[in-house]
Design brief:
With 295 residues, the chain is α/β, with parallel strands linked by helices. The chain has ten helices and eight strands. The protein has one domain: Alpha-Beta Barrel (TIM Barrel). Belongs to the alpha-IPM synthase/homocitrate synthase family.
Length: 295
């Protein structure tokens, strides 16, 4: 495997798990632990959600962490303005690319998506933001439109595209084929993979994406996330070391502490605790290490 980065989205996608709502203090504590662990990037939240979210993101952005701190935004200038007001210049801008999302969910068309993407990118560029573009529901999208969407982003200076398996419909072989094909078509544009665990394949798909050349993969502590969750950070680190001998120098002795803290904050007990409501959290393992986190 080549060099890659790990983006932790516990504070954004993880908090979308049913019944989970971190306090501002808990978000700051989780961000500090993730930074000490050594992840490359933290997706700190969605400022457009409101004042409480903005307070938390602003606090995290002001910590002076070593890792990058980014926010999630829709194709709306107002979303980006909310992120800028929090002191964040690492902006993730996400738009729908499948017709199911574009037409059935939003009642729009493909031209509308491209126009909104162009407008959002122009606004972000005017404020000197470092932007990554997300392709929501990419795994169910028409490939030619996905390519058009990605190429527009690249033309406007974006260097990374997030391929989102939004409803977890991929399998490892298909993931490898899709990411390989997209990477070949986009040249030097980085591919980031965001997998969901609806069929229990988020971790396997994430590893397959890395083998296909993904430059970045997303994970959450304990696999916490919307519906069935995301790829588990702990399991990803263990798989990379145990199956591929890949190491990065992360401070993995912190993993048990991080996992326990997130479990308590989320109200999701660890397996073996004798309490109900578990399922997202698995043992992290003190010896786990991961791939070479890119700068």
């Amino acid at each position: 495997m080549r060099h890659f980065s790990i983006l932790d989205t516990t504070l954004r996608d993880g908090e979308q798990a049913p019944g989970v709502a971190f306090t501002g203090r808990e978000k700051v504590a989780i961000a500090r632990l993730l930074d000490r662990l050594g992840v490359d990037q933290i997706e700190a939240g969605t400022p457009a959600m409101g004042e409480l979210e903005q307070q938390a993101v602003r606090a995290i952005a002001g910590l002076g962490l070593r890792c990058r701190v980014s926010t999630w935004n829709r194709l709306l200038v107002t979303d980006i303005q909310a992120s800028l007001a929090c002191g964040v210049r690492d902006i993730h801008i996400s738009g729908p690319v499948s017709d199911l999302q574009i037409r059935s969910k939003l009642g729009k068309n493909r031209r509308w998506v491209l126009a909104r993407l162009e407008g959002a990118l122009r606004f972000a560029a005017a404020y000197g933001c470092r932007v990554a573009v997300g392709a929501e529901d990419a795994s169910r999208a028409d490939y030619n439109f996905l390519l058009e969407y990605a190429r527009l982003a690249r033309q406007m200076g974006v260097r990374r595209l997030r391929y989102a398996d939004t409803v977890g419909v991929l399998d490892p072989l298909t993931t490898f084929e899709r990411i390989s094909r997209l990477k070949a078509a986009l040249g030097d544009m980085e591919i980031e993979f965001h997998g969901h665990n609806d069929f229990g394949l988020a971790l396997a798909n994430t590893v397959a994406a890395l083998k296909a050349g993904a430059a970045c993969v997303d994970a959450t502590v304990g696999g916490l996330g919307e519906r069935a969750g995301n790829a588990s950070l702990e399991e990803l680190l263990r798989a990379l070391q145990g199956l591929y001998g890949v190491r990065t120098g992360l401070q993995t002795a912190l993993l048990p502490r991080l996992t326990r803290y997130v479990a308590r904050a989320a109200g999701r007990p660890l397996p073996g605790s004798g309490k109900s409501g578990g399922g997202f959290f698995r043992r992290g393992g003190d010896s786990a290490t991961a791939g070479n986190i890119c700068r």
